[in-house]
Amino acid sequence: MPNANLFAILSSRYPSSPEAVFLESPDGKVVSYGEMDELSGRMAAALRALGTRVGDRVVVQVEKTPQAVALYLACLRVGAVYIPLNTAYTTAELDYFLSDSEPRILVCDPSAEEALRAIALNHGVAHTMGLNSKGGGSWVDTVSGYSPDPIIEICTADDIAAILYTSGTTGRSKGAMLSHGNLASNALSLHRLWAFRDGDVLLHALPIYHVHGLFVALHCAMLNGSKVWFLPRFNIDTVVDLISETTVMMGVPTFYVRLLSDPRFDRNLCARMRLFIAGSAPLLVDTFDEFEARTGHRILERYGMTEAGMITSNPYDGLRLAGSVGFPLPDVEARVCDDAGHGVAFGETGTLEISGPNVFKGYWRNPGKTAAEFRDDGFFVTGDLSVMDRDGRVAIVGRAKDLIISGGFNVYPKEVESELDEIEGVRESAVIGIPHPDLGEGVTAVVVTEPGVTLTPEEVQHHLKERLAKFKQPKRVFFMAELPRNAMGKVQKKTLRDCYSAIYD
Predict the structure, then answer these.
(1) What pLDDT, on a 0 to 100 scale, did the predictor assign at position 485?
(2) pLDDT tens digits, 406-434
């Protein structure tokens, strides 16, 4: 029986020459496939020496570096569960993640190493080590003393490879358990669907702590043995410089909006490009149309989520429609249903439900929440309001759970509202997403204060600064005497969205 370990699958597709370039940074630093294999082998040896066994969790909150990629691969090699965390999460948020996941090892930025070690010890974390933005730190120092371990742990398709925390409607993030089989099926399907070929070069300006940058982009590149331009973040000048030496780019809509704002970005610059892919937030029709007019390329929009990786995609060969996220992947079933789980007619709005080998195994230590999100026949309820045409093409028209997507990051209002309501003098609050020209949606807070209490937007924002990741913090804060409610007392967020709809214009 073949080894279902995702690393075994990825490494089997590495180029025949170990000198082939894997990651190249704008400053000219290069990591070959052979060097990555050796480094991840050293890290695997270090993990095992520190007592890491199959199923043990490794929490990682570090900047984007080749060493961070190697650590992810090392966790796969030893059968550990990799848990990447957004670098914007605060110490207070880290306390919850460590309590919930109970990892064996925490790797973090050295600047936070001492403070987090004390918190980690409270939650039974055996080792806390640092990895900085230059690829150094106590973790790398530890690894340097080990020889590469060639052993790849035998895993089944159902063994958990990673846990990704996704914000919860109750204010607490929940860990989506993704198996080796979930990740492998998605990667292999996308590699075929997007027609990766010899000579493809991927431009990678995404973070590597969520599905898009870590799984979708890097897995496709490794399966193809491709070179990756590995940028620490999106920088317009760097991207413009590298586009002419790139064939595939994956990005959030914000990337494409910024490229269109630069007069250097034109058809000639994109002459070598084969494919632009957009996801993580809705792509505006105006952006789609302007991009095609400027470059001759129709952006391929796809749709996914933490719990399932990629779910649908516009076709590589065939019509890519603005406003549509395309068809379910070949191994994915999708249907649009009403609240009771009954299918709605083609063209009618309902909630998208899905089934397939990409769908996660459930929420970490939360069987009740897991059961609530699945139908009796195994379909997962995404919570996204959708329309499907007779051909099976899907459009996402809203989010049933009030999720805000800001700059490609998920923000659940309840989590922000819980922090707002803790502010002295705040009686209640409502958090909404308002269309934003750069971020897709801007997190916006509406606050009701206690009688006689005066607060300023700056005071509210200051309170949240150390308690929430920056992407969750409201861009604007407004005050009302009362929140609008319906006859049942429910806050009418649509009314609020209509009231403030033009604030970011």
Answers:
(1) 83
(2) 998 888 788 898 899 899 999 889 999 99
What does the alpha-carbon distance between residue 472 and residue 416 come to, in Å, rounded to a whole number? 7
User: How far from 89 is each of 95, 171, 247, CA to CA, in Å?
Assistant: 10, 15, 33
The SS3 assignment for 58 reads strand
What is the secondary structure of 218-247 as a DSSP string? HHHHHHHT-EEEE-SS--HHHHHHHHTT-S
Counting as low any pLDDT under 50, the low residues of the chain are 169
Give CA separation, 426 vs 61, 230, 419, 453, 499, in Å.
32, 44, 10, 8, 21
CA dist., res. 412 & res. 472, Å (int): 8
389 and 243, same domain (yes or no) = yes
Domain count, the chain: 3
Q: Is the pTM of this model over 0.85?
A: yes
Q: Cα(249)–Cα(240) distance, rounded to whole angstroms?
A: 12
Taking the CA atoms of 112, 114, 115 and 118 in sequence, report the sign of the dihedral they define.
positive
Both tokens of 386, joined, read 């959708």
CA distance 58 to 114: 18
Classify residue 277: in a domain, yes or no.
yes
Q: Which domain holds residue 116?
A: 6-19+33-182
Q: Do 41 and 114 fall into the same domain?
A: yes
- The pLDDT value given to residue 489: 60
Q: Judge if 471 and 345 occupy the same domain.
A: no
- Asked which of 165, 182, 199 is the last residue of a domain, the reply is 182
